[in-house]
Task: inverse folding
């Protein structure tokens, strides 16, 4: 990436970050840039935060753990929401985004987040709110929010790397896995250790599910069509390979795998859990980054 | 058509003429609050594209007005040192000071020898027209011939051989297919109808309709891009080898197939003239007219003897005249062509034998020899095949033979200036109804046409080479140069010395020419011109100005120009070569001149006035427009600027309609069909057998011997029939310098002025080939090169240029392509700076690299390529 | 109600870029913003390769991905088929932009607005007056609108889009070889309907399933 750009190229075809020369635009597979490059980076963070927040909220429901709910609610709405607003061209008009739930995934997402915000607050402030009905409703809302970012991407048929079948399962599992990790860490620093140790069996399950989803995503997208294949090649061979390898491979998979094996059978340790949380956060950010960054449009000619 | 606000106090359209290239398409400009904001064509005018269409660079022309880099005051060099990379240390000066210095210097030189002043012109300076006036402006100063003329942007890459043959065959500057009626078109290194050449958009419109109609277009070109990429069939050919294929096709027509248009050949060519064994014509002793054989009466007669019916002119046979064996020169051609087999041509050109034979067969099949067509009640021969060339094929050291061979196939089937065939640009200019100005070609010696107007140097009658030479271009010796090459030749001083040319140039007075970088080896150009005091009228400080300019005068762009005459003068290369009405356009100012810029024509007049030659110039203007009305003539002692002259002359040109035409900005009137296919009914003959070259050769040989001239020239090219000569570039190919670099015209660019246009710059980046160096994909792979690599091209003389690789399939694997005049470095044009690669600098400028007859430079060059 | 569409005659097109530049002038678009482009490519192998030239613009799809993706309804299909953006409603989320398989939309932000044609030398008079004549709103997505203002104004004057230049998109007018023909797809007698029928007009990447109103013939 940091190769010196020849003066001739700098003058005639100043690189714009697309990796293409202007004459290759939509003649060769052309990378999606709006939702990751420049200000698009906000969207990456916004999706990430709303989803891990919802993930935390979701897992906390099972443990009826209010601090988890509060933190999850705050991450989703404050971090996710504010960063989302920063991304918009006209944030003061954001309310208009509720106008088209019939066709727009984005609009539906806004509705869900709105309902989540209201009901979540209600659940947080109401005593004895962990009843089965409330939990079910909030659980469903959480799952919808977890998958919201990727669902928004998934409906874009123009980008095969996003519209492949494994994108949604991957996002759901990733949200739950990370939510679970945050909760496990919260318990590790404040809760009963038996609970922490007991959670480990779920950590093992979620991790392997997460790992499997990544493999299936990569395999499925690679085999979906030409452009999907190009996207995966870009992830593993092109300029994204470092992030894929170190971020997704190292932090997302290898390190958590090692830590999980060390703690196998519930032999948990707070420091290792912290380490694993940090690692999966970095790994998931990297995963989302490469998926967002590698999506390509099919050439028009 | 946009959202309006209360702040708009003016929103109007002004009709004018596009000045971005030499084509002069009709254009109208939207001006809002005094600011030009949009350009398009004029639907009511036939000049240019469909409806209000205009090409991309024309549409982008607005930027000539808006460019903040335009010079606004005269500039004076303060650093006496000149050269590329030397800061001229410009100082802004007042007009008065500038003009005074120019006039003082001119007067001083003129006391010695006016031929020491060079007047230059460039046809693509975005301040186009008047076109012809710089030529007779120079004459007002006492400059002899045209030889002091060095052309800028178009440079010697363009035209010399094509114009010479265009003039001799069609009485015209250039040629185009008769798109309206043709069926089968061969294009040889030419992009006529696909964006280049004269009347480019008129041709593009006509071609588009023809293609929709289903014509078959075969393009012979080293690359399948602008012309080849749009052709029905693109045939990869090596640069400069078109002659071989052309001659093989001619051989097929004449000797294999034996189907020719005998009547045409008898009536319209000099193939019936009788020659001796040495190839020269036999002439009547008294009248000096060439002789022919009347087969009906069995008698030898003068060629224009009215008693011979066309069908009775003998094309074949052996005769005797005053004891000498004579025969029609057509017999010589028939024998001469036999050597040029398709196999031989294929070997040279890389065009497969099968393709040559297929094209030759289709050519004859489509020619419909013998058929006629009736248009507007008049009947003409119908020959719907056309073979055209321009800059590409003719730009070689064998240029004259290239063009002659490409023309020959049309001659043999009679497809010249008849419906469906190859047309010359309008050779005539009929007067506007009620007006006066009219120009007609005449018939000169040996029945050959003398064009009505021709730049610089008439192709006919020909002059025998002679010395001493009295001008910088030595046209006394190189008599067929439309524009002389000698000013650029590395051995210029040697040539001047040997040929007794004593007027060493001391001053250049030019119009935006960028001749330092646009012709050949830059260092040679700097060396040849740096000792001159260089004055240029220009829009920006271009490379030439920066390297050798002394005074740069701010010129107006075409958008600020008030030029009543632009199209009147350019009819012979604007206008429609097909069956379309006459039209004429003016350039009307759409905005006020930028800064203190002045129209160069007014500067011309001012300088002439200061030097004391204005009366002479005015007199030549009176004569040029043929003004006989004393009231309208410019009188001795009168000082009129260009607009004031127009006030009078337009009354002459348009009569009572002057005001109407002025108001409209253009005029169009009916062109009768007999003015379109006029040559069929004209008693002229094409000098396709170029007998004059035999006499030239004799004179040249003698001069060379007498003067001890030792420079290499391919003198065998002085031969009357098109023959194969190996272009100089091929002689420099070897194992190391193993590829031929060639250049081509990109539709977006007019030489280098358009590189400074940000609209054009922006879209150029979106074209894969415009700013890059193209290589055949397989060749690139073999050399370990890929898209985006930086490579160097280096010629045998150590001159090199770098650029960015773009591979393409549609290019011959033996060539390297560059689309012209990039690689710019003038500080005065920041948008242009550093864009593209410069091809011209790679061209060696030794005399042997030029066509010895027409002065065309060899525009291919042997290079080696390597990665940066 | 007509449904406006365009036929692009690839055979006629010579890739002069007039459509692209005329469009930029018509809408006073800043550097780097294009509502029209020309895609140039190649297919096949030497010596029988061919050059591909495809002028492109918004396809004004009837089943437009952008319209579907827009969360606010700012992007909508007009009754006459033109896909338009209401810049009062656009929040600048760019869902439309990302969704468009033809990539025909541009996000107009302050950075784009600040671009100069002569970088570092200030905006020209034309760029400045353009900001008044054709104001674009920062933070919104902009795109080809088939010159809706020309079409609407022209029709108000009783002109016929596709025939009268004052009611026809600037790119179609600008084409010097008549490679762009504008007209009513719903009128079986219109020139474009006839051309699509006769020359078997094809939509670009029909497989995207968005039902473009721009057809290509060759």
Result:
């Amino acid at each position: 990436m940091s190769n010196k750009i020849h003066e001739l190229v700098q003058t005639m075809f100043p690189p714009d970050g697309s990796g293409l020369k202007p004459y290759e635009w939509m003649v060769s597979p052309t990378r999606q840039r709006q939702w990751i490059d420049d200000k698009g980076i906000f969207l990456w963070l916004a999706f990430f935060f709303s989803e891990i927040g919802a993930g935390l909220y979701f897992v906390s429901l099972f443990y009826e753990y209010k601090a988890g709910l509060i933190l999850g609610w705050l991450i989703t709405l404050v971090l996710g929401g504010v960063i989302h607003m920063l991304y918009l061209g006209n944030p003061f008009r954001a309310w208009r985004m509720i106008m088209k739930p019939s066709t727009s995934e984005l609009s539906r997402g806004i509705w869900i987040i709105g309902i989540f915000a209201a009901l979540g607050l209600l659940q947080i402030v109401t005593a004895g709110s962990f009843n089965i009905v409330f939990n079910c409703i909030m659980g469903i809302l959480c799952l919808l929010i977890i998958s919201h970012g990727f669902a928004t991407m998934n409906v874009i048929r123009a980008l095969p790397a996003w519209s492949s079948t494994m994108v949604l399962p991957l996002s759901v599992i990733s949200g739950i896995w990370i939510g679970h990790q945050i909760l496990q860490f919260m318990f590790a620093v404040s809760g009963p250790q038996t609970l922490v140790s007991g959670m480990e069996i779920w950590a093992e399950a979620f991790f392997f599910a997460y790992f499997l989803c990544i493999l299936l995503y990569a395999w499925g997208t690679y085999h979906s069509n030409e452009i999907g294949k190009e996207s995966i090649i870009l992830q593993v061979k092109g300029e994204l390979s470092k992030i894929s390898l170190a971020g997704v491979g190292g932090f997302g998979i290898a390190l958590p795998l090692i830590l999980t094996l060390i703690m196998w059978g519930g032999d948990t340790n707070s420091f290792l859990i912290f380490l694993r949380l940090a690692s999966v956060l970095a790994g998931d950010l990297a995963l989302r980054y490469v998926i967002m960054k590698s999506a390509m449009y099919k050439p028009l000619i | 058509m946009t959202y309006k606000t209360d702040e708009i106090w003016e929103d109007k359209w002004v009709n004018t003429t596009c000045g971005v290239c030499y084509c002069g398409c009709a254009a109208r400009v939207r001006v809002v609050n005094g600011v030009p904001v949009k350009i398009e064509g004029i639907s009511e005018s036939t000049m240019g594209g469909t409806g209000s269409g205009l090409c991309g660079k024309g549409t982008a022309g607005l930027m000539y007005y808006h460019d903040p880099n335009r010079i606004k005051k005269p500039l004076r060099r303060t650093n006496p040192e000149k050269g590329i990379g030397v800061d001229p240390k410009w100082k802004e000066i007042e007009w008065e000071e500038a003009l005074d210095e120019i006039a003082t210097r001119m007067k001083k030189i003129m006391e010695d020898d006016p031929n020491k002043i060079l007047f230059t012109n460039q046809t693509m300076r975005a301040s186009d027209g008047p076109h012809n006036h710089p030529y007779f402006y120079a004459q007002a100063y006492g400059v002899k011939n045209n030889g002091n003329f060095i052309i800028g942007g178009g440079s010697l890459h363009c035209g010399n051989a094509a114009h010479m043959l265009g003039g001799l065959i069609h009485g015209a500057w250039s040629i185009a297919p008769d798109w309206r009626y043709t069926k089968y078109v061969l294009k040889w290194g030419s992009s006529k109808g696909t964006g280049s050449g004269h009347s480019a958009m008129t041709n593009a419109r006509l071609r588009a309709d023809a293609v929709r109609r289903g014509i078959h277009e075969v393009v012979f070109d080293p690359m399948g891009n602008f012309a080849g990429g749009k052709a029905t069939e693109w045939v990869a050919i090596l640069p400069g080898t078109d002659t071989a294929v052309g001659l093989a096709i001619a051989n097929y027509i004449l000797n294999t197939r034996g189907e020719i248009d005998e009547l045409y050949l008898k009536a319209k060519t000099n193939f019936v003239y009788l020659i001796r064994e040495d190839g020269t014509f036999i002439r009547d002793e008294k009248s000096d007219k060439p002789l022919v054989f009347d087969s009906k009466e069995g008698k030898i007669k003068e060629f224009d003897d009215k008693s011979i019916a066309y069908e009775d002119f003998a094309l074949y046979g052996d005769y005797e005249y005053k004891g000498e064996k004579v025969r029609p020169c057509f017999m010589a051609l028939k024998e001469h062509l036999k050597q040029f087999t398709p196999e031989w041509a294929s070997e040279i050109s890389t065009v497969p034998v099968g393709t040559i034979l297929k094209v030759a067969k289709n050519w004859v099949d489509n020619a419909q020899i013998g058929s006629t067509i009736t248009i507007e009640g008049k009947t003409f021969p119908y020959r719907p095949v056309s073979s055209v060339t321009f800059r590409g094929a003719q730009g070689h050291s064998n240029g004259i033979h290239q063009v002659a061979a490409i023309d020959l196939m049309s001659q043999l089937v009679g497809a010249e200036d008849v419906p469906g065939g190859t047309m010359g640009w309008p050779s005539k200019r009929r007067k506007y109804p009620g007006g006066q100005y009219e120009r007609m070609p005449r018939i000169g010696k040996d029945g050959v046409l003398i064009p009505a107007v021709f730049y610089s140097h008439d192709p006919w009658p020909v002059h025998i080479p002679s010395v001493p030479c009295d001008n910088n271009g030595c046209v006394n010796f190189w008599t067929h140069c439309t524009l002389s090459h000698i000013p650029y030749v590395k051995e210029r001083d040697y040539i001047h010395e040997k040929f007794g040319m004593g007027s060493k140039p001391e001053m250049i007075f030019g119009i935006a020419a960028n001749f330092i970088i646009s012709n050949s080896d830059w260092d040679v150009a700097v060396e040849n011109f740096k000792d001159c005091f260089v004055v240029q009228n220009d829009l920006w400080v271009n490379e030439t100005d920066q390297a050798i300019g002394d005074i740069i005068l701010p010129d107006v762009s075409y958008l600020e120009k008030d030029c009543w005459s632009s199209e009147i003068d350019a009819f012979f290369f604007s206008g429609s070569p097909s069956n379309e009405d006459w039209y004429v356009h003016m350039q009307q100012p759409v905005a006020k001149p930028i800064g203190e810029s002045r129209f160069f024509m007014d500067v011309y007049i001012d300088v002439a006035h200061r030097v004391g030659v204005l009366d002479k110039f005015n007199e030549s203007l009176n004569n040029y427009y043929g003004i006989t009305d004393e009231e309208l003539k410019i009188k001795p002692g009168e000082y009129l600027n260009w607009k004031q002259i127009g006030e009078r002359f337009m009354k002459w040109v348009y009569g009572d309609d002057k005001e109407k035409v002025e108001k409209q900005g253009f005029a169009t009137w009916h062109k009768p069909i007999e003015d379109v296919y006029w040559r069929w009914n004209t008693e002229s003959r094409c000098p396709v057998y170029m007998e004059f070259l035999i006499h030239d050769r004799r004179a040249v040989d003698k001069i060379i011997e007498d003067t001890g001239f030792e420079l290499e020239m391919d003198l065998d090219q002085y031969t009357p029939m098109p023959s194969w000569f190996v272009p100089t570039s091929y002689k420099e190919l070897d194992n190391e310098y193993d590829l031929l670099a060639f250049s081509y015209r990109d539709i977006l660019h007019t030489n280098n002025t358009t590189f400074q246009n940000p609209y054009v710059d922006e879209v150029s980046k979106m074209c894969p080939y415009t700013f890059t160096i193209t290589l055949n994909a397989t060749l690139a792979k073999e050399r370990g090169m890929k898209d985006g690599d930086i490579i160097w091209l280096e010629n045998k003389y150590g001159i090199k240029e770098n650029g960015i690789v773009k591979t393409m399939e549609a290019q011959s694997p033996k060539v390297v392509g560059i689309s012209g005049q990039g690689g710019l470095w003038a500080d005065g044009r920041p948008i242009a700076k550093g864009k593209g690669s410069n091809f011209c600098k790679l061209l060696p400028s030794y005399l042997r690299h030029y066509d010895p007859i027409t002065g065309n430079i060899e525009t291919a060059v042997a290079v080696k390529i390597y990665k940066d | 109600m007509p449904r406006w569409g365009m036929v692009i005659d690839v055979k006629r097109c010579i890739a002069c870029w007039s459509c692209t530049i005329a469009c930029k002038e018509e809408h006073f678009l800043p550097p780097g913003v294009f509502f029209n482009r020309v895609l140039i490519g190649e297919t096949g192998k030497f010596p029988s390769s061919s050059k591909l030239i495809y002028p492109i613009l918004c396809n004004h799809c009837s089943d437009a991905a952008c319209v579907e993706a827009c969360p606010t309804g700012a992007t909508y299909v007009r009754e006459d088929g033109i896909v338009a953006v209401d810049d009062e409603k656009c929040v600048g989320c760019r869902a439309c932009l990302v969704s468009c398989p033809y990539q025909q939309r541009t996000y107009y932000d302050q950075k784009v607005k600040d671009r100069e044609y002569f970088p570092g030398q200030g905006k020209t008079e034309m760029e400045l007056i353009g900001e008044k004549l054709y104001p674009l709103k920062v933070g919104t997505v902009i795109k080809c609108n088939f010159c809706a203002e020309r079409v609407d104004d022209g029709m108000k004057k009783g002109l016929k889009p596709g025939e009268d230049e004052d009611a026809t998109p600037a790119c179609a007018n600008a084409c010097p070889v008549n490679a762009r023909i504008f007209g009513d797809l719903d009128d079986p007698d219109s020139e474009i309907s006839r051309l699509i029928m006769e020359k078997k007009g094809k939509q670009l990447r029909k497989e995207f399933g968005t039902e473009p109103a721009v057809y290509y013939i060759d």
User: Anything to note?
Assistant: Chain C touches chain B through 58 residues (CB under 8 Å). The domain at 4-217 of chain C is CATH 3.30.70.20 (Alpha-Beta Plaits). Chain C has one domain: 4-217. Residues 82 and 196 of chain C are 19 Å apart (CA to CA).
